């Protein structure tokens, strides 16, 4: 039997895998991409050459205009570096701004694959405490001080400030400001993974500014990606940061040898940034995800509402649910699989076990309403069984 795969995740027939943090195919703007390809790939074919190190100039100009419109403040095209998405950016930053053995700080819990990237790069990861408003700034200050006096200063803080993965929490504007002040005080960079920032379901006014608003401090690298607002197969994103930081990324052997990371794909995206296709797509995703959140919130109430607790998300991809005392998330995951529903258990996102009750993460991005409801029903049966085992 061939083991060749045609996509990253293959879900067994009949299974509803609410653990998957990927968009579903129904949201992909396929017709727009096909039309843009015909228009974008002109006969001069410059996009087939090694590209400019910071990324294609036309693309950076279009991206800066797009970000200026959607973020609501001016983004300078000179301060954008075009990447293969946030995973690649996190990996490259981990190699350039830290050396193996150096210490960095992450939120507890955090995106589990970022933990893997930091481990690949040989970094020592210290967990920062969170509360319902995201990273706890006082505790972080004490940690930064302790690390500095121990001779192991933190090189950077990796944070997912808006619609955090896995908790869905958003750092308020005041804490963002304090975070930047701490970074300056301890000369520690902030690597802000802003992957879900534009995926809010309410008014944009209700979302604090992205960390991108603080790049002038010289301490912030804001990582953006088209993966969740358009399609992950593009492998296209950007870093917004002050010039001295970008110069280090672009001066790396990787870029000196390869040139820009994505001449073809960025050429494809440029007309769709100009003509509003990307913004229209974001508008339609917001509507779709707002509806899925409502559906899932209702279904969870119906099937697990007296046993689990959660905060209804206002954006991003995830519900983070606290389990009844004594129920282990990994155990529930195994039981749930037998009931035909997948989830991600809390321990995946953290190093040390939670002191209190465990938690699990469910995504509403990969399935449409009917499957979300059925998945929650199965979860309810699984939870009933897990409690009694
Ligand atoms: C917090 C976070 N960062 C990065 C990524 C991956 O982003 P990209 O596709 O741009 O590499 C994800 C995707 O799940 C994510 O949740």
Any key phrases for this structure?
alpha/beta, globular, 7-stranded mixed sheet, binds pyridoxal-5'-phosphate, 3-stranded antiparallel sheet, 12 helices, 389 residues
Mean pLDDT: 96
Counting copies of identical and different chains, the oligomeric state is: single chain
Estimate percent helicity.
Answer: 40-55%
What is the CA-CA span between the terminal residues?
A: 37 Å
Number of strands: 14
Please compute the radius of gyration using only Cα atoms: 21 Å
What order do the SSEs take from the amino end to the carboxyl end, as H and E?
A: EHHEHEHEEEHEHEEEHHHHEHEEEH
Approximate shape: globular
Biggest sheet statistics: 7 strands, mixed
Name the beta content range: 5-15%
Strand order of the largest sheet: 2-10-9-8-7-3-4
Secondary structure category: alpha/beta
Low-confidence stretches: none
How does this model look, in words?
The protein has 389 residues and is an alpha/beta fold. The chain is built from 12 helices and 14 strands. The chain has helices spanning 30-40, 57-71, 86-96, 112-120, 137-149, 173-186, 243-250, 253-258, 263-274, 277-304, 329-338, 369-388; strands at residues 16-17, 80-83, 103-107, 124-128, 130-131, 134-135, 154-159, 189-193, 220-225, 237-241, 318-322, 341-342, 344-345, 359-363. The strands form 4 sheets. The protein has a 7-stranded mixed β-sheet, with helices on both faces. Strands 11-14-13 form a 3-stranded antiparallel β-sheet. A two-stranded parallel sheet has the order 1-12. A hairpin with a 2-residue loop joins strand 5 (130-131) and strand 6. The model has no long low-confidence stretch (mean pLDDT 96). It binds pyridoxal-5'-phosphate. The site of pyridoxal-5'-phosphate has 13 residues, from helix 3.
